[in-house]
């Protein structure tokens, strides 16, 4: 089942108008809270305002491959960055594993959950909110974890798929779904939800966020400046405060 949060999805996916000299950044939806703060600091210090589009990594990768103007891509999974790389669109030497994250189960009630009992906790009309399991990394990691634990077949009929991980988070925060699978960083960003379980690291592929510059982007010099700014102590502190593991400093 797919539940589309139309207004929320559009708010994430569409950046403000980019002016000459403003780098165009495509970033995984789970980056929004941290990257908005970093971008504001960067603008205050340099006068350059990144135009950031947030969405599921798969949707962003497909847009870049289809020639959408972009200077930088931050994906929540290696495979979608691989596809952009295979299309020959990455600036040589710019790709780096930037961040790590943790997969968690969230709910509005602060009551710890034994993951093995999750199927029994869902009523006949309840949904488990997840990002798209075939194209959004959070959904792909979630399906892998549930499959590893022998829970996917039991839970699949109850899964409500959203366009990206922040839309998944919104389904739980608004009470449309009692539980959702998101990243730890999303839970940090939403005060209405609580982490009620953490998926074992060995239940899914490692959650790694690669970053790279895109060839022939509209503002390459400004994009490189923002790329470098992401490694500064100030930016690293923001990322860590949001729950990310920073791999490049």
From TrEMBL:
<protein>
    <submittedName>
        <fullName>Molybdenum ABC transporter substrate-binding protein</fullName>
    </submittedName>
</protein>
<feature type="binding site">
    <location>
        <position position="30"/>
    </location>
    <ligand>
        <name>molybdate</name>
    </ligand>
</feature>
<feature type="binding site">
    <location>
        <position position="57"/>
    </location>
    <ligand>
        <name>molybdate</name>
    </ligand>
</feature>
<feature type="binding site">
    <location>
        <position position="138"/>
    </location>
    <ligand>
        <name>molybdate</name>
    </ligand>
</feature>
<comment type="subunit">
    <text>The complex is composed of two ATP-binding proteins (ModC), two transmembrane proteins (ModB) and a solute-binding protein (ModA).</text>
</comment>
<keyword id="KW-0479">Metal-binding</keyword>
<dbReference type="GO" id="GO:0015689">
    <property type="term" value="P:molybdate ion transport"/>
</dbReference>
<dbReference type="Pfam" id="PF13531">
    <property type="entry name" value="SBP_bac_11"/>
</dbReference>
<feature type="signal peptide">
    <location>
        <begin position="1"/>
        <end position="20"/>
    </location>
</feature>
<keyword id="KW-0500">Molybdenum</keyword>
<dbReference type="InterPro" id="IPR005950">
    <property type="entry name" value="ModA"/>
</dbReference>
<keyword id="KW-0732">Signal</keyword>
<feature type="binding site">
    <location>
        <position position="183"/>
    </location>
    <ligand>
        <name>molybdate</name>
    </ligand>
</feature>
<dbReference type="InterPro" id="IPR050682">
    <property type="entry name" value="ModA/WtpA"/>
</dbReference>
<dbReference type="GO" id="GO:0030973">
    <property type="term" value="F:molybdate ion binding"/>
</dbReference>
<dbReference type="GO" id="GO:1901359">
    <property type="term" value="F:tungstate binding"/>
</dbReference>
<dbReference type="GO" id="GO:0030288">
    <property type="term" value="C:outer membrane-bounded periplasmic space"/>
</dbReference>
<feature type="binding site">
    <location>
        <position position="165"/>
    </location>
    <ligand>
        <name>molybdate</name>
    </ligand>
</feature>
<dbReference type="GO" id="GO:0046872">
    <property type="term" value="F:metal ion binding"/>
</dbReference>
<comment type="similarity">
    <text>Belongs to the bacterial solute-binding protein ModA family.</text>
</comment>
């Amino acid at each position: 089942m797919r539940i589309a949060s139309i207004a929320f999805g559009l708010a994430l996916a569409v950046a403000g108008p980019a002016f000459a000299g403003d780098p165009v950044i495509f970033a995984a939806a789970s980056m929004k809270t941290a990257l908005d703060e970093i971008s504001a600091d960067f603008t205050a210090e340099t006068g350059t305002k990144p135009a950031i589009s947030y969405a599921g990594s798969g949707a962003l990768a497909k847009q870049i491959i289809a020639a959408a103007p972009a200077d930088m891509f931050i994906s929540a999974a290696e495979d979608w960055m691989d596809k952009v790389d295979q299309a020959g669109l990455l600036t040589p030497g710019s790709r780096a594993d930037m961040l790590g994250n943790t997969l968690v189960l969230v709910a509005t009630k602060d009551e710890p959950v034994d993951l093995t009992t999750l199927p029994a906790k869902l009523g006949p009309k309840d949904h488990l909110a997840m990002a798209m399991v075939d194209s959004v990394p959070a959904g792909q990691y979630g399906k892998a974890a549930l499959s590893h634990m022998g829970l996917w077949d039991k839970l699949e009929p109850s899964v409500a798929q959203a366009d990206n991980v922040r839309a998944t988070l919104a389904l739980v925060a608004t009470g449309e779904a009692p539980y959702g699978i998101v990243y730890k960083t999303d839970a940090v960003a939403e005060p209405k939800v609580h982490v009620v379980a953490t998926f074992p690291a060995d239940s899914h592929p490692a959650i790694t966020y690669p970053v790279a510059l895109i060839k022939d982007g509209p503002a390459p010099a400004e994009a490189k400046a923002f790329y470098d700014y992401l490694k500064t102590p100030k930016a690293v502190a923001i990322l860590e405060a949001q729950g990310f593991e920073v791999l490049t400093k």
